[in-house]
From TrEMBL:
GO terms for biological process: phosphatidylserine biosynthetic process. It comes from the Eukaryota. It comes from Armillaria gallica. It is a multi-pass membrane protein. This is Phosphatidylserine synthase 2. Residues 1-24 are annotated as: Disordered. GO terms for cellular component: endoplasmic reticulum membrane. One of its GO terms (molecular function) is L-serine-phosphatidylethanolamine phosphatidyltransferase activity. Keywords: Endoplasmic reticulum, Lipid biosynthesis, Lipid metabolism, Membrane, Phospholipid biosynthesis, Phospholipid metabolism, Transferase, Transmembrane, Transmembrane helix.
Amino acid sequence: MELSSPVDIDDSDSNSPHELEPIPGLNGVPVRWYDADRTEPYTRITPFQERHDTSVEFFYKPVTLSALAVGLALLAYVATTQDVLKEGRDKRRVGVYASIASFIMFSMIQFRDGPFIRPHPAFWRMVLGVNLLYELALVFLLFQDLDSARGMMTLLDPALGVPLPEKSYAEDCTLGWATIWNALDVFCVAHTLGWFGKAMILRDYWFCWILSIAFELAEYSLQHQLANFAECWWDHWVLDVLICNWVGTYLGMKVCQYLEVKPYEWRGLRQHRGLRSKARRVLSQFSPHDFTAFKWGTASSFMHYIIVVLLLAVFLAAELNPFYLKALLWMEPDHPIVIMRLAFVFLCALPAVRELYQYINDPRRAVRMGQHVWLLLATILTELLVIRKWSVGVFTDPFPRGVKWGLSTGAVLLVLYPVVQFGIPSARRYIRKEKKKARGKKAKAQ
């Protein structure tokens, strides 16, 4: 069988000036946004934490559909079963709780991982979800007036909505055993626990000391607005700073130092033998998988200085905001909502500061600011906006002259330090460099 000869192709028109215009798209078909190759690396969001706790690999298996089925079954049972919710009862509160639980479940399953993997990344996703819910509640309150907000708080607790008397701690400042004993209350324990938590968050002695002194100075500056900021001098500097704050900071830093040098063990539960060994392994699941010591390097560069000053300002705002919110909304300091807010900010700040530290010191891995620090910053700033709006007509006393002078002096020092530490040395290096260039040009000219 003979093969037919190939057909001669006329190439005379290949270089014709009347060549057809190329058709946009792929093989003549326009490319749409959903035709992109999702396997390309630029289409993927790299999570902050790529590691998993391999010692409990079972808990990292995806169970999203199973969780969805269980969640919907629970919602259906609670919503439709008569012995749980009888018809005719007010179900608005239960509906709100169910909505919150559904959102937290979604955040636990679908949000990105943060920097922590113990006890499980899902726990820190839930923390992020609670933070987002609180931020949305603040945004809602931002558009309400103060009286409406006070009325809404009675829906959470009918005992709220009643004006509270202003309490001052500077009525009797005589230095004696009786006055000191009267000043020792549950808030001293709260101070110590609070600074223990701040030490665990910041992991730096000097930062904690600066923040402790700055907070006491802030109390001095704002006591004309909030009466409970008025304290005796020994209450400020001895009882608070030198005793409660120092003890909490010392214990917190000791725990940080222990975690820094602790020998970590990542064996799974099955590799442990004996009930005591297995119980110890279960408890270790609630300890850090590893630990990073923070070295903020305030004097190392101008950028580090700016970040540390901003972090200090945000921490001060986070400390002062609950005092203003409870005063405006008429809540006692030991009200469960106030305590929950403090505990919630502590949990949110743990991964947030860790993300910020890596964002500053390891920009190659942390190419953008983490979700925890971004959302917590938005939350604190939204609290400030709410306080600023509701404070109009409430805090009418102007700042005393001494406070104005103190704030002005502090602002000057904050500007003067980087000028002396970074600006003048940089200017000297620049002048020496220019002189060296000028001498080189002069030598070439000769």
